[in-house]
Amino acid sequence: MSKSGGSQGLISTSDVMLGLPSPPMEEERLQKDLARNIEMAKKIFSDCSDMVYRDIQVAQDQNAFLFYIEGIVDSHEIDSQMLKPFIIGYVENEDEDSVESPQNTRVSLSQASKASTWGDVITAVINASVVLLMEGTNEAHIFNVRGGIRRGVEEPQTESVIRGPREGFTETIRVNTALIRFKLKTPKLKMVSFVIGEETKTDIVLSYIEGLADPKQLRDVTKRLKDIKIDGILESGYIEELIEDHPYSPFPQMQYTERPDTVAAQLLEGSFAIIVDGTPFVLIGPVSLWQLMQASEDYYERFFISNFVRLLRYVFVLIAIFLPGLYIAVTTYHQDMLPSTLILSIAAAREAIPFPVLVEALMMEVAFEALREAGIRLPKTVGQAVSILGALVIGQAAVEAGIVSAPMVMIVSLTGIASFTIPRFNLAITVRLLRFPLMIMAGALGLFGIVITTMWILVHLSQLTSFGTPYLEGISPFQKKDQKDIFVRVPWWRMIHRPQGMAKDNNQRIKEEINGTPKPEKSW
Amino acid sequence: MKVIMRKIVTVTAMILICSVLLSGCWDRREINDIAFVLGTAVDKEGSEYRTSVQVALPGELGGASGKGTNGGKGWYIESKLGKTVRLSTSAVQKSNSRELNVSTRRSLIIGEELAREGISSMLDVFTRIPQNRLLSVVAVTEGPAYKILDTDAPIEPYPSEMVRELILSYTKKPIRIVTLLDELLSEGIDVTLPIVKVDTSVPPKIGEAVTNIRIDGLAIFKGDRMVGTLKGDDAKMIILGMNQNENLEITIPSPTGEGTLEISLRHSKVKLVPMIQGDDVTMRVNIQLVGTVIESASDFSPTSNMGMRQLEESTQKKVQSDLTKALAVLQDQYQSDSLGFGQTIQHKKPKDWDRLKSRWPDIYPHVKVEIAVDMHLETVGQALEPMGLPEEEIIHD
Q1: What is the pLDDT of residues B276-324, one digit of tens each?
Q2: Residue A131 shares a structural domain with residue A215
Q3: Tens digit of pLDDT for each residue in A242-273?
Q4: Does the N-terminal or the C-terminal CB of chain A have fewer CB atoms within 10 Å?
Q5: B61 and B209: one domain?
Q6: A15 falls in which pLDDT band (50, 70, 90)?
């Protein structure tokens, strides 16, 4: 390629004037002329104030040029591992051959490579590498000195446990993959890499355990990921919405988590995980409704406690969905369903209330949702105060003013608490949403309306799939072996099989079947 | 094409939503539009029925909002006449802005005049509408029934509730509409209903008396007609005989001859054993009692087994004689088979019952009754010896 042709094809003057150079073609090669290369690099990254350029001499008469983006690289590393060897090497180096042989032999950095096109150079620079251009070569040396300050491994904010690991994912994808690798020390744990996003070039890793995850499903996911054409991926939520089976369903079809142990557990059950750079939330799929009702602590506490808590959770999910609707239906249509004393105290409380029950309920539920939302968005210190004050003052004051009845305040707060017992926030939101159609139908048709809406939800759930796996897997289609971990959690020594719908080829979790209970040797 | 499809979908959705949201609400009844009937009293006045309903005033009833402190009653009574019970109830409804809801009815009170004329025909209206609760308790009054509803009954929120509570603790298996119907329709047993009566809390001379309700014996029915009443000990004994005793207290003379002792019989079990020879029917009434001493107004100290046995024996004698006397009233005076002798024969000796069934009303007064009481005195209470008497005056057994 000729020099002039290269420069003409690269950047037009008007683009430089605008400060918006169009990126060069990927195939555009580097020149042997260092000055031209420097000019080129400075054009590409014009108006990028975070770029660092430096001229150095790597050998006698051999000029070199170093550039990188400040902040995303480890500058200490550059100083001690790159610059020092060069400068010392310049003094010691007598060998003329070293012009052609890469200087990186003396650079004590583990990740180093070469690039000959501008496309590769750009990719390297924006991915936190240092690029070294040398006089007389048309190849750039690339040293990976990824660094920069990002949040360290901390306790997950959204999924805290009493018993269980305290580490959570961070925004750095390599830290996240490492956290999973710490748990699953097997070469069967695969990490397939993708880069999605025209502008963000977000690193995405599809992780699974070979031999456990369904290859057909993996092919499907890979295809869906590759089909994504979007300018940017800033959070795993983008991916979730772009690849889920039923985009119009209110039910979440992927689970997200901040906990490496949750990911590891799901991978061991034959699921796959999608790790997205820049967010601590890792996606897991496929999921079933039951999986979204399980907290990681269910498996860490002794099974009596786990079973009790899980049962409690299911009861409260039903409360969260049905209680306001039932209250509306019973108080507007089926007063004779309640015991006399109960209906009389409700009647006494409602005597002075100006609104119909439905209006009252909608008002309070919406107010509650607003309070919840405000509590999240406000700074932590203020948020807490707002939620407490809001709940207390608005509830109490509304009752005393005779706008809202006391039983309604109770129903709304109980429903609110019930929805917070759902361990997965996305399912909790769904449940809270479904409450509203139920309430309206209960207000219009009474219990009949509740039955109709429930049927609609059930029919929807039974036809829902997550990456081809039925959403109610275990109950519909019914799997006898899966009953151990849906409504109950059997002790670990009875968890012999993996879930039937997944890990079909390698279903045995406990290889040597324990007969009955474990029998430790007694020595006393 | 696409536009038309979209239009069709939109119109269909609109029709569906409208039909759900608009058609649904036609039978919507807010709680504020309902009058809760707490209790009903039915009387007969001449040829007409008087239905009195006790309606809750939820605003005054108290409840969560902390109202009802203005001293007002939490209920009011509305009473109307009509040719049937239903017509009189309709008359009540007509003068009430809220719809009457009878699912909260706690008790049904029947006036004496109506009870004596027969209760079968009026019971229909209390069972036909599904809203009615068959678990409402039933009681009879001497005189007009609506007076019961108009008492103060300050301990309960409303008098009808008090009637219910009283009746629930009066017998083991309280008489509700469903049990009443069952007994009315069963062969070989006659209905008995508790009598409720207006009472005053304190004698009129001292302070402000409030009116209260108490149970005052049993109304004895023959068929569906009330034929008479049993009061005091007779009523208690018949309840014991019916195996319905909840807590019977009887007074026995002290074995020493001075003063009396009070025995509380908390547990009792009655078994009827029929013995039939031709038309000669003998009914053996086996009674097992467990009791405790609750008062000793005597100088007797039952500190040994002997002493307790003495008390047991006198209790047995007392129960035996009292029950015999009460049964005699039933058999001779009212000829009402309240204990269900006929039913016992039907259950235990069905062949004999088929033979005797048609003549049972004639046979019943002549049934011989043998009463066997087995009393077990469990404890004499916290104190062994009569408290309040010096040691020298106490007579040990």
Answers
A1: 998 889 999 999 999 998 888 888 877 777 888 888 999 999 999 999 9
A2: no
A3: 999 999 999 999 999 999 999 999 999 999 99
A4: C
A5: yes
A6: very low
Please tell me the predicted confidence (pLDDT) of residue A47. 84
Give the Cα separation of B161 and B149 in Å (integer). 10
Residue B85 Cα to chain centre, angstroms: 22
Query: What is the three-state SS of A3-31?
Result: HHHHHHHHCCHHHHHHCCCCCCCCCCECC
Per the structure, the complete domain to which residue A223 belongs is given by 173-287
Contacts of A334 in chain B (CB under 8 A): none
CB-side neighbour CA atoms (13 Å) of A466 = 26
In chain B, what percentage of residues exceed pLDDT 90?
A: 51
Secondary structure of residue A465 in the 3-state scheme: strand
Chain A hits for B101, CB-CB cut-off 8 Å, are 335-336
pLDDT band at B24 (very low <50, low <70, confident <90, very high): low
What is the count of structural domains for chain A?
3
Domain coverage including residue B251: 235-397
Q: How far is A466 from chain B (nearest CA, A)?
A: 28
Q: What is the Cα–Cα distance from B370 to B283, expressed in whole angstroms? A: 6
Determine, for residues A340 and B36 on separate chains, whether the beta-carbon distance falls below 8 Å: yes
The answer on pLDDT for A289 being more than 50 is yes
Q: Quick check: B56 contacting A, CB < 8 Å?
A: yes
Amino acid at B369: V
Residues B252 and B269 occupy one common structural domain: yes
**Paired residues of B260 in beta bridges:** B253, B297
How many Å lie between the alpha carbon of A467 and the closest alpha carbon of chain B?
29
Q: How far apart are CA A483 and CA B38, in angstroms?
A: 48
For chains A and B, count residue pairs whose Cβ atoms are closer than 8 Å.
96
Q: Is A337 helix (H, G, I), strand (E, B) or coil?
A: helix
The predicted model scores a pTM of 0.82
Whether residues A317 and A458 fall in one domain:
yes
Chain A neighbors of B38, CB-CB under 8 A: 340
CATH of the domain at B246: 3.30.300.210
Nearest CA-CA partner of A376 in A323, A415, A429: A429
Q: Give the per-residue pLDDT at A59.
A: 66
Shared domain check, A461 and A315: yes
Residue A375, pLDDT > 80, answer: no
In a domain, A69, yes or no: yes
Number of H helices, E strands in chain B: 13, 15
Pairing of strands B211-222, B225-230: antiparallel
Q: Which amino acid, one-letter code, is at A187?
A: P
Residue A513's pLDDT band (boundaries 50, 70, 90)? low
How many residues are there in chain A?
524
Q: Is residue B2 part of a domain?
A: no
> pLDDT tens digit string along A442-451?
998 899 999 9
Of the pLDDT bands very low, low, confident and very high (cuts 50, 70, 90), residue B51 is very high
Mean pLDDT for all residues in chain A: 84
Tell me: do B271 and B373 sit in the same domain: yes
Among chain B residues, the shortest Cα distance to A334 is held by: B29
Query: Which of A91, A123, A144 is where one domain is finished?
Result: A144
- Please give the full DSSP string across A99-128, using - where no structure is assigned: GTS-GGGTS--S-EEEE-BHHHHHHHHHTT
Q: Are B200 and B234 in contact (CB under 8 A)?
A: no
> Is residue A73 over pLDDT 80?
yes
- The answer to whether residue A110 scores a pLDDT higher than 80 is no
* B235 contact A CB<8A: no
Please, where are the H alpha helices in chain B? 2-24, 85-94, 112-117, 120-123, 125-128, 146-149, 159-170, 177-185, 232-241, 305-328, 341-348, 350-356, 360-363
Residue A217 has pLDDT above 80, yes or no: yes
* Pairing of β B248-253 and β B259-277: antiparallel
Q: How deeply is A236 buried, as exposed, middle or buried, from its count of CB atoms within 10 A (0-12, 13-18, 19+)?
A: buried
| Global ipTM | 0.80
